[in-house]
Specification:
3 helices; mainly alpha
C-alpha cells in the first residue's frame, strides 16, 4: 500500500505541476518514487505466484 506521504505528494503535484515546485520538492519525489516502486515490486511478486507469464 502506498504511504500517505506519497498520496499527499501526488495530490499536491496534481494541483501545482511545474519545474520550480518539482525542484523544491525533489526529496519528496524521491521518497514517493521509491514507495511506488516498492508497491510495484510487491504486486509483481504476488501476481507471479499464480501467473507464470510474469517473471
Amino acid at each position: 500500500m502506498l504511504q500517505l506521504s506519497t498520496i499527499n505528494f501526488l495530490t499536491q503535484l496534481s494541483k501545482n505541476n511545474n519545474k520550480q515546485r518539482f525542484e523544491e520538492n525533489r526529496k519528496k519525489y524521491d521518497v514517493a518514487k521509491a514507495d511506488f516502486l516498492q508497491l510495484v515490486d510487491k504486486t509483481i511478486h504476488i501476481i507471479s505466484s499464480f501467473d507464470n507469464t510474469i517473471n
